[in-house]
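Consider the tokenized backbone below.
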């Protein structure tokens, strides 16, 4: 069972449908007991960093999420669900993130390009390519779908597992231990996104 954490933001049912297609048993839930009982977790997110954190805090689920991560449960963050895993964001300077990863989320510096970065873009992989289960079978240069104005700037750059280029080098995915996260939307990324989600299901 994979629990998609429902805190009122994100493409919850698109993510659910994509995971079902990838072969998972899925439940969209804000129930702490169901989240604790699940084998894996998905943390989606759409919109502003501050609003997502405010809504997540209102659910009372933050201690539950921390406990499950600390216990080694696999978690996949998607879009702003990646960003809130960091300590904070320039989008909402006074709001604290979950701090699972050290570093902040910065605005994309692409003065000649339209912000938000919206549409299909290709992935490049770093030296850890062979270690990242999420991207097994995914070719370098594969295209996925992005909608964002900010991207993560980790203190430890080695946690970056995929990047894309949009005016600058942009963080597309990060991973450390049992936590992986992607800035793009796998549920909107066609066959490549389906393969990535299937890899998560099969972890």
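A designed sequence for it:
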């Amino acid at each position: 069972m994979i629990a998609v954490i429902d805190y009122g933001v994100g493409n919850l049912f698109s993510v659910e449908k994509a995971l079902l297609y990838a072969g998972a048993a899925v439940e969209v839930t804000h129930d702490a007991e169901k989240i604790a009982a699940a084998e894996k977790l998905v943390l989606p997110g759409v919109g502003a960093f501050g609003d997502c954190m405010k809504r997540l805090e209102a659910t009372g689920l933050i201690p539950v999420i921390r406990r499950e991560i600390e216990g080694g449960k696999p978690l996949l963050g998607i879009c702003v669900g990646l960003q809130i895993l960091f300590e904070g964001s320039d989008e909402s300077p006074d709001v604290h993130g979950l701090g699972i990863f050290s570093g902040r989320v910065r605005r994309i510096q692409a003065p000649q390009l339209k912000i938000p970065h919206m549409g299909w873009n290709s992935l490049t992989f770093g030296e850890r390519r062979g270690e990242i289960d999420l991207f097994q079978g995914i070719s370098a240069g594969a295209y996925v779908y992005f909608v964002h104005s900010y991207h993560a700037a980790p203190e430890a750059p080695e946690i970056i597992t995929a990047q894309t280029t949009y005016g600058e080098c942009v963080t597309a995915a990060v991973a450390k231990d049992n936590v992986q996260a992607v800035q793009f939307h796998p549920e909107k990324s066609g066959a490549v996104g389906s393969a990535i989600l299937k890899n998560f299901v099969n972890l």
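Helices lie at 12-21, 32-37, 49-59, 62-70, 80-83, 190-201.
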